[in-house]
Amino acid sequence: MRSVRVLVHLNNLALGGAQLNAVDIARTLRDRGHQPVLFAQGVDGPAPLVELAAEHDLDLVVAGDPDTPHAVVRARLTGLAEEHGSQVIHAWEVRAARNAYFGPGRQGRLPIVTTFYGIRMLRGMPRHQPLVLGLGALMPDGRAFGHRDLRLIEPPVNTRLDAPGSVSGAAFRTEVGAADDQVLLCIVTRLVSGLEKDAGVARTMAAVRLLDDPGLVLAVVGGGPSEDKLRAEADRVNEELGRRAVVFTGQRSDPRPAYQAADVVLGMGGSALRGLAFGKPVVVHGASGYTAIHEPGPLVEPHASRCMYGHGDHPVDAKALAAQIRALADHPERRAELGSWGREWVVGRFSLDHVSTAFEEIYRELLRKPPGRAAWLRDLEQMSRYEFVKPTARRLIGR
Q1: Which residues pair with 114 in a beta bridge?
Q2: What is the rounded CA–CA span in Å between residue 220 and residue 346?
Q3: d(CA 395, CA 53)
Q4: Phi, psi angle pair for 308, to nearest 5°
Q5: C-alpha closest to that of 341 among 262, 265, 277
Q6: Alpha-carbon span 85 to 35, nearest angstrom
Q7: Can you say whether the dihedral through the CA atoms of 65, 68, 70, 75 is positive or negative?
Q8: Selection from 309, 302, 269, 292 nearest residue 19 by Cα
Q9: Alpha-carbon distance 22 to 60, whole Å?
Q10: H-state helical runs in 85-169
Q11: CA distance 333 to 80
């Protein structure tokens, strides 16, 4: 395939799953001879993706800050497309799709492919240009929302870098105080309320409190708005148990030593997939108290179709999760079997090479037959409604 100049509009600059996926795919395509450039709106505070892009020798342009008007961001995006000679815009998530549509994609000048790896379908993305979903469970919703060109490409895992033995976990175990004869539970996540990620961490701490087992250590890797609240809860758990049972390490640009060090990984989305790639047994978190061991059987496809996420029934305690942890902690042979099976499952279904090739094929289609001005105009009414009419109505109602 001839080289493609693709402008990749990131959702934001945090170390979230979609952003990491975007960088991994861009790097892989760059290594195949394509010419990606990354773009993102600025943020207040740390922007770890800037460092990550630099480590991978990827060009990243940051425009403005969170309060910069959309028109200014879009003007910079349009200018970058012209400077770069972009042929395709790859927008990650809703805001990026709108910026691309009203910016360099205006009047169909450049084709847009949007990737949406959320767990609930949202409106306000172009319906007559390709939309890539990461969850098979969302495909019916996408069709119901009027999207004419839906693709399913499940989130990728770099199974070469995320692999057993690719890094050492010894220093991490020492850092969190996990002895060789202790079982180390690890959660790697953004500490935010979205998707109930912070609730999953809190429920796991509650399970550790219930188990009250000196042979267990829980390490939480990540940062975010919920960090202070969760750290305070960890202090209460540790005081009650009389030991350092729960350890928060903060955010890490490279959390692979945590995955390697873990005996059990807990979490959702890309973090759960990375745990499986490292050959670790995984307990999947989700909404309304959902937790389940990822193992061969009826839960495999539901987990996969929702990118390692589930929906529970509002449990009032953490007893079910405590039992799941107990079942894995007490049986190292089961942990080994699940780890081996999980590694094979991820390599066969979610490899980065496979996903990058799928995006290459979409770029090829768009260059061969761009949607053009007609598709752009067919989307104008609904894009304008979600961009201008609804926000104005909300402001008026709020007065």
Answers
A1: 91, 131
A2: 23
A3: 37
A4: 55, 55
A5: 277
A6: 10
A7: negative
A8: 269
A9: 12
A10: 94-102, 139-144
A11: 54
> What letter represents residue 248's amino acid?
F
Token output for 128: 């007559």
Phi-psi category of residue 187: left, alpha or beta, with phi > 0 → left and psi -120 to 50 → alpha: beta
Distance CA 147, CA 303 (A): 24
Q: Could you list the pLDDT tens digit for every one of the 399 residues in the chain? A: 589 999 999 998 988 888 999 999 999 999 999 999 999 999 887 888 999 999 999 999 999 998 999 999 999 999 999 999 999 999 999 999 999 999 999 999 999 999 999 888 999 999 999 999 998 989 999 999 999 999 999 999 999 999 999 999 999 999 999 999 999 999 999 999 988 999 999 999 999 999 999 999 999 999 999 999 999 999 999 999 999 999 999 999 899 999 999 999 999 999 999 999 999 999 999 999 999 999 999 999 999 988 899 988 877 789 999 999 999 999 999 999 999 999 999 998 898 998 999 999 999 999 999 999 999 999 999 999 988 876 665 665 665
What tokens were used for 319?
């007893």
Reported pTM:
0.81
Beta bridge partners of 8: 38, 90
